[in-house]
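Input record (one chain):
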Amino acid sequence: MAALAEEQTEVAVKIEADGPPTLLPPQAGDGAGEGGGGTTNNGPNGGGGNAAAASSAGGDGGTPKPSVAVSAVAPAGAAPVPAAAPEAGAPHDRQTLLAVLQFLRQSNLREAEEALRREARLLEEAAAGSGAPGEADGAGAEAASALLSRVAASAPGPAAPDPPGTGASGAAAVSGSATCPAAPGKVGSVAVEDQPDVSAVLSAYNQQGDPTMYEEYYSGLKHFIECSLDCHRAELSQLFYPLFVHMYLELVYNQHENEAKSFFEKFHGDQECYYQDDLRVLSSLTKKEHMKGNETMLDFRTSKFVLRISRDSYQLLKRHLQEKQNNQIWNIVQEHLYIDIFDGMPRSKQQIDAMVGSLAGEAKREANKSKVFFGLLKEPEIEVPLDDEDEEGENEEGKPKKKKPKKDSIGSKSKKQDPNAPPQNRIPLPELKDSDKLDKIMNMKETTKRVRLGPDCLPSICFYTFLNAYQGLTAVDVTDDSSLIAGGFADSTVRVWSVTPKKLRSVKQAADLSLIDKESDDVLERIMDEKTASELKILYGHSGPVYGASFSPDRNYLLSSSEDGTVRLWSLQTFTCLVGYKGHNYPVWDTQFSPYGYYFVSGGHDRVARLWATDHYQPLRIFAGHLADVNCTRFHPNSNYVATGSADRTVRLWDVLNGNCVRIFTGHKGPIHSLTFSPNGRFLATGATDGRVLLWDIGHGLMVGELKGHTDTVCSLRFSRDGEILASGSMDNTVRLWDAVKAFEDLETDDFTTATGHINLPENSQELLLGTYMTKSTPVVHLHFTRRNLVLAAGAYSPQ
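The corresponding structure, as predicted from the sequence alone:
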């Protein structure tokens, strides 16, 4: 046992809902997903909270799973460790404390033992209870083991807060996750033998107080917050919703159904309007049995609700709860909430409202601190030959004008490396084929004819209406060169149209191909079968509605994702299915090719996004962390990052290299259905069912704008090729154009704003709105800017 004092070990007992616990070695999170790590319950200086081992580590891509983590205490030579200890009121709490003290003594961790005693003010009782050192190996050890097993089996009483300002690092904390020193060999046996009912650990809702007092506890806190100063009231009001949910669930879990019903009816009207959908789900949970299979509730129990509060407001709350000895509420705060404390002025109601609304509260500040390479990769240098028609068509004055924009838009990218760009070889990207180079040359030529957009020069909008789409249009995509349009339908078909005079042709049969001269210049033309030429091709293969479609950049392939749980890759040469990628177990809501081809991403109802390569059957990365469906996915222009929008009302940015989540954006009040990156890679625009479009600075991890105007779900977003205009399409049958240059100028991204989230969004939606274009009765499903900045929009006519 003495060996434990030398090194710090960590062992996690991971308890699956349907099987016995398994013992896991220490690990720092899987490559795909968020790595687990020790989290402190409070701000930088740990102003009052209990440090518990993370309950979200693991090799399954960081999916939040309940686990009982047991970590050994710091070495004996370490500084004295203040620990959050139970108040010595209840005999059960006293026993627990004595067990921990006895174990510290056994392990020769004298300083930690002394610190714990001092903190708990239990010197006399602890000394009497723990016995002489010589007895520790005999019956005393068995008693300690039995008591420790009780600690693991049930969450102890409410923890007394640390004194303000004390560090919470390395503390031996007795909390809901039962952190206590133990020999690795014993942990598994303790949890297995003494914890037959796994759901008890899963629930974390052990009855702590008198059920009839819950309404009094809640109204007491409500009265205190409503009577506090204005500057603190807005911040402390954030507590209402998570406390309401956890107190209600605690009553339901402990089968106090009448009290739960009365509690819900009395206080559900006080919650913010954007939580109404969650409250509807909550109101249907009236019995303990209802809680077991409910995903929303599992999320609430396993992920801590994050609140960002200033230190002054937090101290005020702590003082109130201590004075009232309101252990019930304090216990929920400690176990189920993560309070992110910052120093400085409390935030105003507007600032808080801008950032809250997601299923798990705000993002922790640390979540948006890692470096993101948002710059663009260096373009390969390709010589652009001038066409004869170009030379003839331009007069002498026109020629230099024509070359200038070409040089600005293309040349500058290839000559100078963007300081914020990732290293060129950070992730392996496919090499350019000759056909890709030709396409780039075509792109550059088109760019020279591009219209410069702005408030005084708005783009034309060409709307493709799908008439008589009785099959139900569920997805649309347009190729980069705007030559093909694909539609995914609810009847499980994918239909591809040519929108140029050039018809779609399949490759000839094998027997006919063998007769062709392979050396001829026009071999690519000869292999096509003229007899198959048509404007429309229908692709059959899915067995459910097709919710996502994406063309490859070289226009040779098309991806489609479906309710049948598969993603299919189709050849646009033969118009047949090449591969069916099976990884998702539930409907796949969206899929998208990387801007460089080869890689693609998919997201679905199973709450994870997966990164694939076209030549691999299995996903390369699994991005796990969202608490609800992943509705939309989008690659960053440099292909090193993937953004996902979810029904948990958050947007996450994932690093393709290691699978880590590098940004979490909260602020939407409804499920997110559209995402788009600005062409320079610096900004992200997101649209949701709340009808708002939010703008984000990726480098600083901040919200920088809010565009209000739509009255229904924003289904599609797209920046113009130069990034000067943002187009948004919605279920309210409108396309709106916004001034992106003005929206992103003069951004407040100083260190203070970044550190505390004091966001001051200008109320300038009307100034930024450049135009609103109504359709007769067609929801806008997709938007696309051509290489010359013409807007293409698409949707299915829906007669009223």
